[in-house]
Every structure is written in C-alpha cells, then in structure tokens.
C-alpha cells in the first residue's frame, strides 16, 4: 500500500489530495436520489478486493489541492449537500474543509470505514465497516447510517456485529457487492424481510449510468 503524504505537506488541512470533485446524484443508502456535490479524496489503507474506486488508493498520484479552490467549485453549482468520500477521507485533517463548507451554508455527508480518528464536523455520517480494518469505537457513536456490503452469507453475521454497536437511531442498510449483486440479492431480500430493522441499499447510480 502506498505511503500517505506527510501531514505537514497538507498545511493543517488547507491542502488535501483531491482525486475528483463533481455534481451528481447520491446513489446509495439513506440519501439515495438526492443531488450532491462529491469531494473524493485519495488514499486508502484498507484495500478491499472488490473496491470500485481502487484508482483512489495511492494518494501520491493526486497532488494536494487548496481547500478554498475545492469549496469555490462546490458553491458554484446548485448543490445544497456535499459528500466527502474516498479512498478513506478520515486519513486527513478535515476541520478546515468542513468549517469552510458550513460557512457557505452547505450540508455535509461523510462516507467512511471509520478506521481512523474523526476530524471535521458533519451533518450525516455513513459508516461502512470493513473486516480488514474494523471501525474505531468512536465511529459507532458517530454513525447516522450503517451500510454493510454483502458479498457472501457470512456478511450477515458481520452486519449484525456492527449493528449491535451503533446507536438506536442509526439507520441500517445491507448493500450487495456489485459484482455479485444479482446472486446475493435474493438472500438480502429474505434477510431484510426476516429482520425488518434493516433496509436494502442498491447502487442506483450504476443503473442510471452516472458517476
């Protein structure tokens, strides 16, 4: 796994390794269907074999970009919500980015594995736990939404282990891993019918053929 940039080179979060930023429709989980501006940061030390954003893993491919420039682009479009994703965005100090976005009146959603300490202030946290590097304890208390990727039958037990650690108001989602979605969907549907505290999440953006 590639080494992360020196935190000093990020100037306290004034610079971040930006992979891409774009305006689209949120495709997954609780906020699916809502327009949002995505800020995707480079770097991930989890390394899921089925990851559909492996191009983000090496942050050294993405020179640090000024937060002010990112925010200016975000506020130049009609987006009312921002999704900060990766990679794993909590590898970096996010206080300046989230503070500046909030000052512009934007709502901020975070997508994270929860495997690193939190920085920044968010209006919604989607926690997607990974077996290879499980969430820190603080992540469970921060989660507004728990989204577990289901690749095999064993992932239902993994989902329940994580659900037992989040707060009572946290929304619970099971999402099929894309490459096995057709095969796993019947089992997910039956599981959710038998355990109605769970909801089904699908990657609707892939069906819409949008980023």
Quick overview:
By secondary structure, this protein is an alpha/beta fold. The protein has 6 helices and 9 strands, in the order βββαβαββαβαβαβα.
CATH class: Alpha Beta
Taking the alpha carbons of the first and last residues, their distance comes to: 25 Å
Helical stretch count? 6
CATH superfamily: Aldolase class I
- The secondary-structure element order is EEEHEHEEHEHEHEH
Strand content: 15-25%
Helix content: 10-25%
For this entry, give a set of tags.
nine-stranded mixed sheet, TIM Barrel, 211 residues
Structural notes for this entry:
The protein is of the alpha/beta class and 211 residues long. The chain has one domain: Alpha-Beta Barrel (TIM Barrel). It is built from 6 helices and 9 strands; from the N terminus they run βββαβαββαβαβαβα. A 9-stranded mixed sheet has the order 3-1-2-4-5-6-7-8-9. Helix 2 links the parallel strand 4 and strand 5. The chain starts with 14 loop residues before the first strand and ends with a helix.
């Amino acid at each position: 796994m590639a080494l992360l940039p020196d935190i000093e080179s990020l100037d306290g979060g004034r610079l971040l390794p930006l992979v891409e930023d774009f305006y689209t429709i949120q495709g997954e989980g609780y906020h699916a269907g809502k327009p949002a501006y995505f800020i995707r940061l480079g770097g991930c030390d989890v390394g899921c074999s089925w990851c559909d954003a492996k191009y983000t893993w090496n942050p050294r491919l993405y020179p640090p970009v000024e937060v002010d420039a990112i925010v200016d682009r975000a506020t130049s479009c009609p987006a009312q919500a921002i999704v900060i994703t990766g990679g794993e965005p909590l590898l970096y100090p996010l206080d300046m980015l989230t503070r500046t976005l909030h000052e512009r009146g934007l709502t901020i959603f975070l997508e994270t594995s929860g495997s690193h300490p939190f920085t920044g202030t968010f209006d919604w946290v989607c926690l997607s736990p990974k077996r290879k590097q499980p969430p820190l304890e603080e992540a469970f208390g921060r989660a507004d939404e728990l989204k577990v990727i289901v690749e095999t039958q064993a992932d239902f037990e993994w989902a329940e282990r994580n659900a037992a650690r989040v707060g009572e108001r946290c929304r619970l989602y099971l999402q099929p891993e894309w490459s096995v979605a057709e095969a796993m969907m019947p089992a997910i549907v039956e599981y959710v019918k038998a355990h109605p505290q769970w909801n089904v999440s699908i990657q609707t953006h892939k069906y819409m053929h949008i980023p």
